[in-house]
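INTERNAL AUDIT FORM
Audit reference: QA-55
Scope: verify that the stored structure record matches its stored sequence.
Auditor: D.O.
Record contents follow.
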Amino acid sequence: MTGAPVRVVGSLGTAQTLAWASSYYLPAMLAAPMASDLGIPTPTVYAAFSGAMVVSALAGPWAGQAIDRRGGRVVLVGTSLIFALGLAMLGLSEGLWTMVAAWLIIGVAMGAGLYEAAFSSLVRLYGHHARGAITGITLIAGFASTVGWPLSAWMETQFGWRNACFGWAGLHLLIGLPLNAWLPKLPRQAKHERSAVSDPTRAVSSPSPAPTAGRHGYATALLAFVFAATWFISTSMATHLPRMLEATGATLAAAVAVGALIGPAQVAGRVLEFGFLRRVHPLLSARLAALAHPAGVAVLLMAGPVMAPAFAILHGAGNGILTIAKGTLPLVLFGAQGYGARQGWLMMPARIAQAAAPFLFGLALDAWGANALWLSGAIGLAAGGALMLLRAQPPKSC
């Protein structure tokens, strides 16, 4: 693993698997029993979860700045404690507002403890050599739903949804916290660079000449749009895929079977990025990945449900590569200096788009049926077009 020890990648990837499984993938298994027990509609639980994602957007820049100053270990250890607190509060909730408060606390942990914080921690430790490590942790955490959904379902069936929440809280304390605490301290040469975070003239050397302020802002705006567009698509598909495939004419059984292909396709895309595509500039692999969903949409709508597996594979592989691009593109385009704070601001629109996606794409699906896919396809094309406008810098340091 170029630039980072396997131990670091393995421990951080495992901690990320736990973090994603106990937050992003939690409502799918626990929302219905939670709503039934609390006497509220199930959509209300998902609304509270959307609120958590908005909070995560607001927490991201703060967490990134903290990682730029102090490194990732302190921040990620703190998020293990916040995850545990929020999940314990969720298990103890007795009504709507205590449930909402618990989700908002989990949202703080999500904003400071998911991929963006992990990527920032790796960049703070290894600078421009972090690309392979970023890919490595996404390969491991790509199995978060594979682990999280069955484990949440088993705990809920055996012990109830409240004890499932307590179980996840305990796992954060027993597993997540020690793994995050195992991250290395900042090396000495990194410590004296803290002041450079607020002084760009003292920035760490970058792989290419720093862009002008105008060019920097232009590229930042394009990249923020790309991340928001692609997260809107991925969350829309994660929420509505079975119903969307049924709208194209597939049976429910076929839709579920096709949906199961997306996870392996995501991992396959990340393996491709780790192998062949690591030899090319991250911008090129991101452009190809952004066009994968629109290509899948065209194939599915023109050929019908018989091509649903091809759609799932294209969408999943593209989404898997784009997850890595969210970490590598800001690094190669802007350099390692101030990476954490920049990552937080770049991902803020994406988190908000993610929170709105289930509702907005659901409306489109209700109104247009399978033709709602033209919406997600057009958004994917727009993201690909925005990536075409970005200028690739020489990748020699990556």
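Auditor finding: record pair retrieved intact. The chain has two domains: 6-183, 213-389.
Action required: none
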